[in-house]
Structures are given as C-alpha cells and as structure tokens.
C-alpha cells in the first residue's frame, strides 16, 4: 500500500476549493441535478404502489430502472468526454423527460404491465450520471493537494440530496399525488442539469477520438474498486430493507426514516473529516482498510437491535466508517482515469454502487423473510467485508500485472 502525498488543511480546505473560479456555481447546480437519480426509484415505488396496491409490482418496475441507470451511466459519461458535457447533458435530459413522461402516462392510464417495465428500463437508461460530470470538473479545477477535499465535498452533496430527497418526495406524494411528486423531482433535476450545462468554463475539454470499436469498458486500474463498489452498493440496499423490517417488526415503522437520515448524516460528517485531514495511506489502502473497519462496526448491528438508542449509535459509527470508503473510491478512479476519459471513469464506481443496491436489498429481504431482522442486518457486515476483500484482491492482481510487464 503506497503512501499518498495529500495536503490536509482542516475545514479551511473546503473554503479554499469553493473559492476556486466557478466552483460554487457548479456545486449548487450539481446538487439539484442529482435529484432524479436519488429519488426516481422511490417516486416509482410510490406511483406504482398507489396505482396497483402492490409493493411487489412496484419493486418489479424499479428493477429495470436501476439496471438501465447502471448500464447507461458510463455510456453517457463517455460521450461527455468525447463531445463535451454541455451538449450531452442537454440531450440526455431531453431523453429523460420524454421517457419519464411516457412511464407516468402508461401507469396512470393502466397500460399493460409489460409496457411499464420497458418504459422503466428506458427511463433508467436515459438518466445521466451528473455526479460524475461534477466530479470531473473538480479534477480540472482543483489542484492535486485539494483533490481529497473537493471530492469529499461531492460526497457531502450526495448525502444532502439523500437526506432531503426521499422525505420531500414522500411528503409531496402524501399531500398532493405521487405523479406530482415525481414530476417535481424530475423538474429540479432538469433545472440543475441545464444550469450545469450552461457553465462551459469549468467543464473538461472535449477529446474527440476515432470511432470506438466494441463495448465501452472500464480502464484496468479502476476495475478492482468498481467491482468492490458493487458490494458497497449492496450495503445500502441491505441497510434500507433491514431497517424497514426491523422497524415494522418492532411495531414502530416510522423509525425507519430517522435511521436512514442518521446514516446519511454520519456519512456527511465523516466526509467532512475525511476531506479536512492529512492522509499518509493511498486512497486504495484507505478504501480497503475502512471497508474492513466498517464491517467490524456492522457486526454490532444485530446485537444492538433491541435498543433504539444503541442501534442508532452503531448506525452513526457505521456512517463515519463508511464515508472514507466512498471518498477513497472516487479518488482512486480520478487518479487512474486515462486522458480524455475522466468523466467516464468516474461514472464506474457510481454505476457499480447503483447495481449493487438491488442485489443487497434482495439478499437482505430473503434473510428478513426467512429468519428476521438480525439475519438481514448481518448482511450489511458481509457486504462490507466482501467490498474490502474484492478491493484487496484486485489491487494485488494489479500489482502482479504491473510487475509482470515491468
């Protein structure tokens, strides 16, 4: 594990990166632009369950949405690298509006169920990963010494959206209508995306290349972290299902929401700390080490479920341990991005996490149904341990490959 020369200057580092030309504007635009990706799944669950009375049907419609997002994100990001962010963002947002509107119309008019699945897949495929577009701007704007703080800031922005987005869309669905709430989230994303596209001065330069032959594949250096991020996404899917089950079994279903917010808040706080301090270990080493540490913390979850205060304390510790894992994964991807493929490379960890969320949810759901909340909660620790092992094995293989070609 190599030592990384990174300069930590405490919380002042955040002020320094936000004072860089154009930074505050694209950060604000990026927060709004994240809303569709963060809330579309929940919006569709609320919409379909209200239309059919079945959460199972809602889950079936969400599955192709998530798959479409995970598969298409690197493709959109690759086009941003080749043609410039502005043009591709506007095209993708147009596709997203059309696809999401078609999905809404099909559900509300009672069209055949299979058409909902197709429309959900197309909607997911039309959803650009604008988080990677914002992070790519930091790789151009922020000097290497401030890169950790800049990318930690983006993790904080993610958590802000995940803290505020689900309660907002749920409240909108309850007070107005699920379709209205879904359209409101989509509208915020379009405003943020158009605002981001208008800021051409901070976007990476387009690097047109010859016609690409074959599929878009991730650079070899980012594969270990991307595969590990599938397991990391499984952590969040398992957490959501496990905590909902725990709250319902305990007769207090309203506790699930505060539990989700507690995890997101702890990750945001941990990200502030991660970006503010000096690290001697490389980002890859931090990813592996903190994933292992978080797995040890997660082992305590099933033992703490009998006491709400103790469980919430463990959740807060878990979030603090997970936050360096998330920041480090993005740092690894940014450092190993080939020239002209920065936005695409940064999309792989995010896409991998999106792919892992439903996998973790399905496994935790099966454990919940067969055994109960304790078994479901332990899947969180297993997912984190798997993330650490996959990343460690992948990094070892990379070193062997470099040694063989040296």
Word description of this protein:
This protein has 406 residues and is an all-alpha fold. It has 16 helices and no strands. It has helices at residues 12-18, 23-33, 35-52, 55-83, 85-108, 113-125, 130-141, 147-175, 178-198, 223-249, 256-276, 283-298, 301-304, 308-335, 342-370, 373-405. Helix 8 runs antiparallel to helix 9 and helix 12 packs antiparallel against helix 16 (373-405). It is globular and about 55 Å long. Mean pLDDT is 85; it is low at 1-8.
Please state roughly what percent of the residues sit in beta strands, choosing from under 5%, 5-15%, 15-25%, 25-35%, 35-45% or over 45%: under 5%
If helices are DSSP runs of H or I spanning 4 or more residues, what is the number of helices?
A: 16
Helix proportion: over 70%
Structural class: mainly alpha
Counting DSSP E segments of at least 2 residues, the number of strands comes to: 0
Overall 3D form: globular
Query: What is the straight-line distance between the termini?
Result: 18 Å
Unreliable parts:
1-8
Indicate the multimeric state. Answer: single chain
Q: What topology emerges from the helices and strands here?
A:
Blueprint: H1 12-18, H2 23-33, H3 35-52, H4 55-83, H5 85-108, H6 113-125, H7 130-141, H8 147-175, H9 178-198, H10 223-249, H11 256-276, H12 283-298, H13 301-304, H14 308-335, H15 342-370, H16 373-405
Helix pairs in contact: 2-7, 2-8, 2-9, 3-4, 3-8, 3-9, 4-5, 4-6, 4-15, 5-6, 5-9, 7-8, 7-15, 8-9, 8-11, 8-14, 10-11, 10-15, 10-16, 11-14, 12-14, 12-16, 14-15, 15-16
């Amino acid at each position: 594990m190599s030592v990384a020369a990174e300069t930590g200057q405490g919380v002042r580092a955040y002020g320094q990166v936000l004072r860089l030309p154009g930074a505050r504007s694209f950060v604000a635009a990026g927060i709004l632009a994240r809303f569709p990706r963060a809330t579309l799944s929940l919006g569709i669950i609320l919409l379909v369950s209200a239309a059919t009375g079945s959460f199972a049907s809602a889950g079936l419609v969400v599955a192709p949405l998530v798959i479409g997002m995970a598969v298409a994100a690197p493709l959109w990001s690759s086009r941003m690298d080749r043609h410039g962010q502005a043009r591709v963002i506007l095209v993708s947002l147009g596709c997203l509006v059309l696809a999401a509107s078609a999905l809404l119309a099909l559900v509300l008019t009672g069209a055949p169920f299979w058409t909902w699945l197709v429309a959900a897949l197309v909607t997911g495929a039309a959803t650009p990963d604008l988080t990677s577009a914002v992070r790519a701007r930091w790789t151009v704007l922020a000097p290497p010494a401030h890169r950790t703080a800049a990318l930690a800031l983006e993790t904080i922005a993610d958590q802000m959206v995940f803290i505020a987005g689900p309660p907002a869309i749920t409240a909108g669905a309850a007070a107005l209508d699920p379709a209205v709430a879904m359209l409101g989230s989509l509208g915020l994303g379009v405003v943020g995306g158009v605002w981001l596209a208008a800021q051409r001065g901070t976007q990476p330069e387009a690097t047109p290349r010859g016609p690409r032959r074959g599929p878009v594949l991730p650079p070899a250096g980012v594969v270990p972290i991307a595969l590990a991020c599938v397991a990391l996404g499984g952590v969040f899917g398992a957490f959501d299902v496990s905590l909902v089950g725990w709250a319902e079994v305990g007769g207090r279903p309203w506790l699930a929401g505060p539990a989700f917010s507690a995890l997101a808040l702890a990750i945001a706080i941990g990200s502030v700390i991660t970006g503010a301090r000096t690290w001697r270990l490389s980002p890859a080493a931090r990813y592996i080490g903190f994933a292992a540490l978080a797995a040890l913390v997660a082992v305590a979850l099933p033992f703490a479920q009998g006491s709400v205060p103790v469980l919430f304390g463990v959740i807060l510790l878990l979030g603090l341990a997970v936050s360096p894992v998330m920041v480090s994964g993005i740092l690894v991807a940014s450092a190993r991005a080939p020239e002209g493929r920065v936005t695409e490379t940064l999309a792989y960890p995010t896409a991998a996490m999106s792919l892992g969320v439903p996998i973790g949810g399905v496994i935790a759901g099966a454990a919940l149904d067969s055994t109960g909340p304790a078994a479901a909660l332990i899947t969180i620790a297993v997912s984190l341990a798997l993330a650490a092992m996959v990343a460690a094995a992948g990094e070892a293989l990379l070193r062997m490959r470099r040694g063989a070609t040296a």
